[in-house]
């Protein structure tokens, strides 16, 4: 059995692993979650360097988003430090939103609205800093012990020039604020209904599955009239639907829905 090696050359204990992907792994150490490159003893130096380069790329995203490690950005998981080829973040004891929705009762309307607002604020803060997330999924959203949600996993994110007009730009993978909003709408749908749609931006009709494609409306599920967030979700699923205001349009709609139902 092969054992993962951390950034200091020590073997990683399996029970400390929180999450792992193709190139990176997240390990818990006390109240800190540390993201690092996947390294096995049998890996070539080239493969190790490729994985570490993915961490360095994500570090650049964090440097754009969070200028001061002492002050978290609202709606985004708190980055504590970027030592070496690692990313240290606040450990979120509530786990992923995906697991929460699978193993808990349906969240109340009040909690749904709170999550909508927290996620919209987080995505708005990313876009304000000229960052496209590119992978807004329920498994990339974390909860703390008080059931507050934050956006995490910036490994697929792109940093755009600071003077970019975000409504008009796409990154190298055809991701944009509109594909981010589309994915956020899918997360909203999952929160409200408890169902996953199985829709991916990367399973379009083209041959290159690394390029995002905004799906046509007929690929999305029909929204019943009794869904309180129907108009919010529908607008997310319409490319350019929120116009120049972007994610701020969701916050405006949530403000309209405050008060007695």
UniProtKB/TrEMBL annotation:
GO BP term, example: regulation of autophagy
PROSITE patterns: PROTEIN_KINASE_DOM
InterPro entries for this protein: Atg1-like, Kinase-like_dom_sf, Prot_kinase_dom
Gene3D superfamilies reported in the protein's UniProt record: Transferase(Phosphotransferase) domain 1
Subcellular location per the Swiss-Prot or TrEMBL entry: Preautophagosomal structure membrane
Record's bilayer topology term: Peripheral membrane protein
GO molecular function, one term: ATP binding
Domain Protein kinase: 12-261
GO cellular component terms attached to this protein's record: phagophore assembly site membrane
Protein name, entry field: Autophagy-related protein 1
């Amino acid at each position: 059995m092969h054992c993962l090696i951390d950034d200091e050359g020590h073997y990683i204990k399996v029970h400390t692993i929180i999450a792992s992907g193709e190139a990176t792994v997240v390990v818990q150490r006390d109240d800190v979650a540390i993201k690092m490159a996947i390294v096995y003893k049998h890996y070539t130096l080239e493969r190790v360097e490729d994985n570490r380069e993915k961490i360095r790329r994500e570090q650049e995203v964090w440097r754009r988003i969070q200028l001061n490690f002492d002050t978290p950005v609202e709606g985004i998981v708190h980055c504590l430090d970027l030592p070496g080829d690692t990313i240290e973040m606040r450990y979120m004891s509530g786990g992923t939103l995906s697991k929460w929705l699978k193993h808990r009762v349906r969240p109340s309307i009040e909690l749904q609205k709170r999550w909508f607002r927290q996620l919209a604020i987080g995505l708005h803060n990313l876009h304000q800093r000229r960052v496209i997330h590119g992978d807004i999924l329920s498994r990339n959203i974390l909860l703390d012990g008080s059931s507050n949600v934050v956006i995490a996993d910036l490994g697929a994110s792109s940093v755009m020039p600071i003077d970019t007009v975000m409504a008009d730009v796409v990154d190298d993978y055809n991701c944009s604020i509109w594909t981010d909003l589309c994915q956020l709408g899918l997360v909203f749908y999952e929160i409200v209904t408890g169902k996953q749609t199985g829709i991916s931006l990367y399973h379009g009709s083209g041959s290159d599955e690394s390029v995002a494609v905004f799906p046509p409306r007929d690929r999305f599920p029909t929204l019943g009239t009794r869904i309180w967030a129907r108009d919010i979700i529908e607008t997310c699923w319409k490319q350019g639907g929120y116009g120049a205001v972007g994610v701020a349009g969701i916050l405006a709609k949530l403000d309209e829905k405050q008060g007695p139902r």
